[in-house]
Amino acid sequence: RPRIFSGIQPSGGLTLGNYLGALKRFAALQGGEAETVYCIVDLHAITVWQDPAVLRARIREAAAAFMAAGVDPAQSILFNQSQVSAHAEMAWLFNTVARVGWMYRMTQFKDKAGKNSENASLGLLAYPALMAADILTYQATAVPVGEDQKQHLELTRDIAAKFNHDYGVTHFPITEPLIEGVATRVMSLRDGSKKMSKSDPSDASRINLTDDADAIAQKIRKARTDAEPLPGQVDGLKDRPDARNLVNIYAALTDETPDQVLARFEGQGFGAFKPALAEVAVAALSPITRRMAEFMDDPAQIDAVLADGADRAAAVATPILERTKDIMGLLRTR
Ligand code: ATP
Ligand code: MG
């Protein structure tokens, strides 16, 4: 059975971008042809500083968000990365396959390292090798991600191809990114040229999955827009990234196309559109927020789900890791 893998960092509270670009699609992919493996990538989160107590809480909160969004631990393998040591081991093997120059070209590294990149953690630079390990340790053939992860996915393919070539094998698949729908890049509510991110310092830039109805309505009311009325078709939004973003969010939340949404709002301004958007956002998110809170009330249950998920993940990952070591000539005597 083919396998799909994806992950989310517990580097902050999950956002509307994570829901539309990742979680909602993770849930939809369950029960299909492929086995679904979903990971809370805590080893990735620590590539930038995380307070230990906060991190522990966020790992559980992320697990609650996955389940509240419809990821079912009976249908999918749901676990946190650091409990399956194959990820870190495979990442080391890939550190010897990947080239330093590949890493320096990654835009996420440039963005997150900032101006003083000499002072970034070595892990932040090596991040894509660990991500390749996450995916390839399950020999996953497809990875649902947002647009921002496209470059890292290409690097995963490069690592798989170089490994197969260097060792003369067809061990790793050349993984396909699944970047689909209108919400593959939800933008910041404060700046339509920047991605919405859970680690953005501005809370007003994003909608959190824990925000209540009032907070959601207020953030949408204050979202940056222009003074023009909405056009009847999406072509008319070409040079209006803030407006385009809000229309895309609406469409993704109601499973419509942006053109279908605009057909109803043509000629109207944001005074009318924003309250309508707030209404659909609250309708879609409040059941998730409520279910998340219910899961969070029982941390022992979350821990049990993650423990079971880690066992099932390790059962898949370990033989693939061992085969990889064999191919590389690392002697195994037990
Ligand atoms: P951070 O700011 O810490 O990097 P993030 O919000 O970018 O957090 P990640 O954990 O890096 O979240 O990414 C998890 C998944 O969510 C990835 O598949 C990523 O492509 C997707 N994703 C993140 N932000 C968005 C967004 N704004 N729109 C659509 N998908 C997104
Ligand atoms: Mg990110």
UniProtKB/TrEMBL annotation:
Major localization class: cytoplasm
GO terms for biological process, alphabetical: tryptophanyl-tRNA aminoacylation
Reactions mediated catalytically: tRNA(Trp) + L-tryptophan + ATP = L-tryptophyl-tRNA(Trp) + AMP + diphosphate + H(+)
Residues where ATP binds: 9-11, 17-18, 146-148, 186, 195-199
CDD domains: TrpRS_core (cd00806)
Sequence motif 'HIGH' region, residues: 10-18
InterPro entries assigned: aa-tRNA-synth_I_CS (IPR001412), aa-tRNA-synth_Ic (IPR002305), Rossmann-like_a/b/a_fold (IPR014729), Trp-tRNA-ligase (IPR002306), Trp-tRNA-ligase_bac-type (IPR024109), Trp-tRNA_synthetase (IPR050203)
Positions annotated to bind L-tryptophan: 134
Top-level taxon of the source organism: Bacteria
GO CC aspect terms: cytosol
Coiled-coil positions: none
Motif ('KMSKS' region): 195-199
Keywords: Aminoacyl-tRNA synthetase, ATP-binding, Cytoplasm, Ligase, Nucleotide-binding, Protein biosynthesis
E.C. no: 6.1.1.2
Location within or outside the cell: Cytoplasm
Gene Ontology MF term list: ATP binding; tryptophan-tRNA ligase activity
Transmembrane segments: none
EC supergroup of this enzyme: ligase
Record family assignment: Belongs to the class-I aminoacyl-tRNA synthetase family.
Subunit description: Homodimer.
Xref: NCBIfam families: trpS
HAMAP family membership: Trp_tRNA_synth_B
Protein purpose: Catalyzes the attachment of tryptophan to tRNA(Trp).
Protein name, as recorded: Tryptophan--tRNA ligase
